[in-house]
Design goal:
The chain has 473 residues and is of the alpha/beta class. The chain is 31% helix and 20% strand. It contains twelve helices and 20 strands. The chain has a nine-stranded parallel beta sheet with strand order 9-8-7-6-5-4-12-11-10. It has a five-stranded antiparallel beta sheet with strand order 3-13-16-19-18, with no helix packed on it. Strands 14-15-20-17 form a four-stranded antiparallel beta sheet. The chain is globular and about 75 Å long. Keywords: Glycosidase, Hydrolase, Signal.
């Protein structure tokens, strides 16, 4: 829910977020007492995955539903930026252009692009994207849902500037109300959405590159919001989709987002527990976004705006992990960004959210890889400020339970503890030939360096319970 205006980027929730952040900061609210480590996303070897990647891409919101990228772009991201994952946008309208008829040629085109990521050893999260419900809700203003699943009941809609205000138009509100069956008129829409996701999961369940499924981008509840939406409507809707996916895919991770309204700026979420019927450890991930209203409103990260955004940092860092702990789920930052590279404080803002992610031990997907000032290339193939900042050394796979990961003064420090059942080395992406030190006994640990992929593999001493590795150029 973002838009560029003369004042910068603003969101529907700016006023709410500003009031909430300012009030909490003024009150000096303490952090949640529960600071237990979050569960982690793991691979088939039991290693903790730290996902660094990009959203691909705004261009996939168009009629064809495919992003602008080529295979060479994927290679460049993996080699030059160290990304190990992608949040890949797909749309309901392209998957199911008519009720019950799936466009498998579209999914084949998606699979072709997924293969490009598989060639680079990257993980793919398929994101069912929507904004303003779908293009039929308001004269082509949105993306996501097909026209046949759009019921506005003849209510009017005028696209607004900034575009995010279009969410409040009568036709758009009614389209959402009918989709969630707030009106009691269209239970078939959620049934079709659920069946559509099952079809997608069945198509990609066997693809080793596909890590999981992001069930809906930035859910919006129509005329029902916050506790009237997340608990009684959104959570059971997610549960139905998860149950359907598990009939065809027992292993891949399912990513569930809180509502965008408020949570994007750090407000508390009332999303409920989504149970995973798969045997063994649940594979459900909480996937909030982070777009602090202060940055959106002012278009900068300096002066008084910076103080306000820092309060929203504190809110998000408190409330989103608290929701993940309540759900007993790992957390992943599915979208973050929102500034042009020439905006005051752009580098500091990016550095601060990167450090926040490291502190929380979570991965992220930057918005987005589209060329331009807020992307990672400038439209001529040159890396932007963000491409350089995101090319940050990190442990992409940790062979145990993570304790700490930090990067400062060209030094990456990674600590972990042994965990039963984990195999394979710890893998670290580092942009240059590394110098490595470990707290393990001399001669009991070893490394290997892949100069083409810039990946350092570390095999720790299995008889040492805890390990700390320091990597420098």
């Amino acid at each position: 829910m973002r838009v560029r205006t003369a004042l910068g980027r603003i969101t529907l929730t700016t006023a709410l977020a500003l009031a909430g952040a300012a009030g909490t900061a003024a009150a000096g609210a303490p952090a949640h007492a529960d600071t237990a480590p979050l569960p982690t996303i793991t691979d088939d070897q039991g290693r903790t995955l730290i996902l660094h990647g990009l959203n691909t891409a705004s261009s996939a919101k168009g009629p064809g539903g495919l992003p602008w990228i080529s295979r060479d772009d994927v290679v460049r991201e993996a080699r030059e930026m160290g990304t190990d994952s992608v949040r890949y946008l797909i749309q309901w309208k392209n998957v199911e252009p008519e009720p019950g008829r799936y466009d498998d040629a579209y999914l084949d085109a998606v699979a072709e692009r997924v293969a490009w990521y598989r060639e680079q050893g990257m993980h793919v999260i398929l994101d069912m994207h929507q904004d303003i419900y779908g293009p039929a809700a308001c004269i082509g203003a949105g993306n996501g849902a097909p026209a046949w699943a759009t019921f506005t009941d003849g209510l009017p809609c005028t696209p607004q500037d900034p575009w995010v205000l279009t969410y409040l138009q009568p036709a758009v509100l009614r389209a959402y109300d009918n989709f969630w069956n707030n009106t009691g008129k269209h239970p078939e829409l959620m049934e079709r959405y659920t069946a559509m996701w099952q079809h997608v999961a069945q198509r990609f369940a066997g693809d080793p590159a596909v890590l999981g499924y992001d069930l809906m981008n930035e859910p919006f509840g129509g005329t029902r919001q916050f506790g009237f939406f997340e608990g009684p409507i959104l959570t059971p809707s997610y549960q139905r989709v998860v149950n359907a996916i598990r009939k065809v895919d027992k292993d891949n991770w399912v990513f569930v987002e809180p509502q965008a309204l408020g949570s994007n700026e750090g407000a508390e979420s009332s999303i409920g527990v989504v149970k995973d019927p798969r045997p063994g450890t649940p594979h459900i991930v909480l996937a909030p976004h982070f777009y602090p209203g202060g940055v959106d409103l002012g278009g900068s990260y300096d002066g008084a705006t910076k103080l306000l955004v820092q309060a929203q940092f504190a809110l998000w860092k408190r409330n989103m992990p608290a929701a993940a702990r309540r759900l007993n789920a790992p957390m992943w930052l599915g979208e973050v960004g929102g500034m042009g590279q020439d905006a005051p404080g752009a580098a500091d803002f990016t550095g601060d959210w990167l450090s926040m992610a490291d502190d929380l031990g979570i991965g992220w997907a930057y918005w987005s890889n589209d060329p331009g000032s807020s992307g990672v290339t400038d439209g001529k193939g040159n890396p932007t400020l963000f491409a350089k900042l995101l090319a940050r050394p990190y442990a992409r796979a940790i062979a145990g339970t993570p304790v700490k990961m930090s990067y400062s003064s060209q030094t990456l420090t990674v600590s972990w503890r042994n965990k039963a059942g984990v195999s394979g080395p710890t893998e670290i992406w580092f942009p240059s030939t590394p110098k490595v030190a470990s707290t393990d006994p001399a001669g009991k640990w070893r490394t290997a360096w892949d100069a083409d992929r810039h990946v350092l593999s570390v095999w720790a001493d299995p008889n040492t319970a805890a390990h700390t590795v320091t990597v420098t150029p």
